[in-house]
Amino acid sequence: MLERIEEIRAEAGAAIEAATSSAELEELRVRHLGRKAELTTILRGIAELPAEERGKVGGAANGARKELEALLEASAARLDASELDAKLLADRVDVTLPGAPPRPVGHAHLIARTTRQIEDVMIGLGYTVAEGPEIEHDYYNFTALNHPEGHPARMLQDTFYVQSQPEVLLRTHTSPMQIRAMETQPPPIFVIVPGKVYRRDSDATHSPMFHQIEGLAIAEGITLADLQGTLLALCRAIFGDEREVRLRPHFFPFTEPSVEVDVSCFQCGGSGELAGGERCNLCKGQGWIEILGAGMVDPNVLGFVAEHGYDAERVQGFAFGLGVERVAMLRHGVPDLRRFFDNDVRMLEQFS
């Protein structure tokens, strides 16, 4: 029995030291030290041996088992280290290779880019950029802007009101910031206000949420000619140096006089005709494209901020408001305003 134990120890020890993988080592463990292994069977049968043999056989079998367990542990550590090195070598990443597939670089949305362009132009003219709340009070949105009670713009079919607070609404234009800006500083003031506005409209040229940029200039001696010159500089920066503007009489509650502003068509050059004598489809043969509304600030509006230094007898100025989506549609030939909000990557990638 002792000779057989020594043979098992020598045979198993040599096999364990020669093992080349963790899987092979596990197979040897099961074969030589598992429940059905010969050495395990010898240990279980010690109680059946004559008393004088039990101590020698038990000691030899336990010694062989401990020696094999130590060899298994040492070989496992050796093989784990070598296998890890081999795996790291095989899995090495070449960081100089491009991604597969390479991801396209993102870009600003067309509305954001158009807004930034208009802001850059106006900052160059000496204006500062301000922002205001999109949830507004009736006073700033209507009353202080000379909208009388019962004005159609105040009605539910045009405006989103907060149900629990009837004096609170989603602003219908960025014009409330005229009053808020004048409340924060005395004249002179030159400010533009970009931001989202909300109205109950939804079709190819209207959206329940869209973007506007408000402009306000108040100082001594400002005239309608200053408004025309400012808008001419803005339109030429956006639509090209050859553009002209014209002012047409109109009505807005918070300006007097009020004007609609047109820019000469940049597709037909203001002639109303394309090459070949066809009618220009962009300006519909008129040679002019309506672009924004503007006017001289109504003295009644200044009356709401008179205590902040806006004496209508001493200062005056102009205000204008334009839709960012309309500018972007005209510049880039987008036929439907809703395309800006569909998040269709095919459409957005055209303006990368």
Textual characterization of the structure:
28% of the residues are buried. The longest helix is centred in the first third of the chain and has 40 residues. The chain has a seven-stranded mixed sheet with strand order 1-5-6-10-9-8-7, with helices on both faces. The chain is built from eleven helices and ten strands. The chain is of the alpha+beta class. Strand 3 and strand 4 form a beta hairpin. The mean pLDDT is 87. It has two domains: 89 residues; 242 residues, BirA Bifunctional Protein, domain 2 (2-Layer Sandwich). Helix 5 crosses helix 8.
Summarize the structure.
The chain is 39% helix and 20% strand.
Features:
352 residues, alpha+beta, BirA Bifunctional Protein, domain 2, 2 domains, seven-stranded mixed sheet, three-stranded antiparallel sheet
List the helices and strands and how they pair.
Blueprint: H1 2-18, H2 22-33, H3 38-44, H4 51-90, H5 110-124, E1 128-129, E2 135-137, H6 138-141, E3 161-162, E4 165-170, H7 176-184, E5 189-198, E6 209-219, H8 224-239, E7 245-252, E8 255-264, E9 288-297, H9 299-303, E10 316-323, H10 324-332, H11 345-348
Helix pairs in contact: 1-2, 1-4, 2-4, 5-8, 5-10
